[in-house]
Each structure stands twice: as structure tokens, then as C-alpha cells.
Amino acid sequence: MKALEEKILKEGIVKEGNVLKVDSFLNHQIDVSFLEKMGEEFKELFKDKKITKILTIEASGIGVAVMASRHFGYVPVVFAKKAKTSNISDELYHTRIDSYTHQKTNDVVVSKQYLNQDDHVLIIDDFLANGCAIFGLIDLVQQAGGVVEGVGIVIEKGYQEGGHKIREAGYHLESLAIIESMNDQTSEITFRK
Amino acid sequence: MKALEEKILKEGIVKEGNVLKVDSFLNHQIDVSFLEKMGEEFKELFKDKKITKILTIEASGIGVAVMASRHFGYVPVVFAKKAKTSNISDELYHTRIDSYTHQKTNDVVVSKQYLNQDDHVLIIDDFLANGCAIFGLIDLVQQAGGVVEGVGIVIEKGYQEGGHKIREAGYHLESLAIIESMNDQTSEITFRK
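Above: the input entities. Below: the C-alpha cells describing the complete assembly.
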């Protein structure tokens, strides 16, 4: 998505330790009209799929998922929650996700009420790097017996292994922008063609 | 908002310890078309105000705020973040918010880049009980020198003191539903007329 690449070049900040900050429109302040365009783009990219539910994870994925839902006929959005305790009840699907950014492992849950075997799920998230979050969400859908129809990502770090692993595993993954390289010394960012 | 009261009666679950769970449409699964109606209603309730920014707090407020933004001319949404460390930099406005639900105090921050003295802010959140979260968000706007034009809440627990204190302090507070009482034994919920 050309407009997203331009926005990243203009507003993104490359920080030490492989961090791209896009706080001006996605991760802290949200540019809602831009989210609208991203929602339209996801619909275009997954137009052949019958989606009954969008699954994301709190917190930054929620805005993107909600706006995308409008373009998929207002299907329900479910956001997986980071469990506050490791005391997981029988009423929940549970998976564990390693967080690269915060160097910890989160227990992530979805209530069994909101994900089931009839669901055809589009998984949406803001970033894809090593793929841990997405494989965790895929795991939750599979526990529920649902079908993962696709994975939609705003920004993929193409030089990390997540995208390759998800495509290799046979999932239909679409990223609105794929970063080929970035340099925190020069602030240079290049995108995959 | 009559439709919201009906939805709470139909789908809300009263739990021990003054907890109302609305996970089916707001706090876990999100009914996006219903969020759309709530966004329209907030616009109607604050139609005389010139709003330049919507401020909320992660995570459950984000969906409501993003959908409301559409009805206020796509103004930017900023979500305050729960700080992961108590190491707060100079680039952040910082406040502390006691969480009733999780019985802890959170350090909550907003980057100084995304809130400033030109901002006319509508604060939006999903629940209002003792008012701690809202007074924290008001504090952040005031630190930035901005103006709090209003506070929009989805569900106010009218029998707790938050709503009274915010109105008493002179803020324009609108809650889409105000619960007068609820009973976890009988599951009965009554609303303020």
C-alpha cells in the first residue's frame, strides 16, 4: 500500500534495537481516516474470502480491526486478552505468546463463547516480526475448531522470520507494507517491491 | 440510549463484587455496528462542541473512541498508555490511576507530541465507576494546557461517586446508559430515568 509506505517514511522513527515507532498514526495517536483506507485495502486483498469474525490482540490491533470490520459487513471483532493471572479457567482458550518488544511471555486468552467451529476468521494485527503473536492467535482459532481464512498485517518486518514461516505454513498472509531493511543510524527505511 | 439499555439487559452478566460483564459486545467481542450507533449518539450529545481530539485509555476504550471519531470528522484519537516501567521520561505527561477492577495503581502516560494547548478534547471511555480513570485523563489534558470539552461514557455505574464528582467539577458528562442498581443474586439491573 503505497500511501502507507509514504506515511512510514514521513512519520516513522527508527530506534535502536530494531524498533520502528509509528506512534503518530497507529500505536499511540490513531489517524482514523487512514485506518479507514487500511480497512478498505484489507477488504480488497481478502475479497474472495468469506469472513465471519476478525480476531486481534489488545491493544494496538483493536483500532485497525474495528475499522476493517466495517468493510467486511460489520463482522464481530474479538480481541484476545493478556491474562492478568496464570489462573486460566475452563471457559477460555489459552495460548502463550513471547513478546519480543517487552521480552516476556504473555498468557493470552479468548473466551470459548466468542470463537467456535463455525468461524471463518481473519486475523489482524499491527506488526509482524518473529510471528509469535500471529501463531498464538492461529493456535486459538484452531483450538476452537475454526478456520483461519487469512492474516492481515499493517507493517511486516520482512527481514525477520515471521512472514516466511506463516506463508510457509500455508496461510494467506497480506501485509500492507513490508520493510526490507531499516537503519537506526541513518534512519533509512527500504520496502520490499 | 434505549438500545444500549436493552442490550445490557439482554447480554450483560452481573457478577459478584459489583461487576457487570458486557464481553459480548464491548469488552472482549466487539459489536462494531453497535459501536457505530454509539458513535452517532456521542456526536448528537456533543454536537455544540468543537472537538479536535478524542482521548481514551487502552484497551477497551479504543474501539469506541475510533468509531466515535468517524462522527466527529475523523479527529485523531489518542490512547493513554499504561506505562510498563515507572521510569517516566520528560517527553511524557504522566498521571497515576487507581484501578478498582484490578486493585492496583497504574502509571498512565501520553506523549507530549500528541496532546497540546490547542486541543479541545472529548474524553471517551467504556465504564465510569469511581471516576479515577476519567480524572486521570482530565489531568493529562490539563497538563498539556488543552480544554476538556466533554466526557463521553458508555456505561456509568450511577450508584458510585464518579459521575457525581465529574458533573460537580463542572464537566459536561454524558453517559449512554446509567445503571441505578444491579443485583448479582437476582441479576436484576435498573437504569436511571
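Note for the figure: Residues 34-179 of chain B form a domain with the Rossmann fold fold (CATH 3.40.50.2020).
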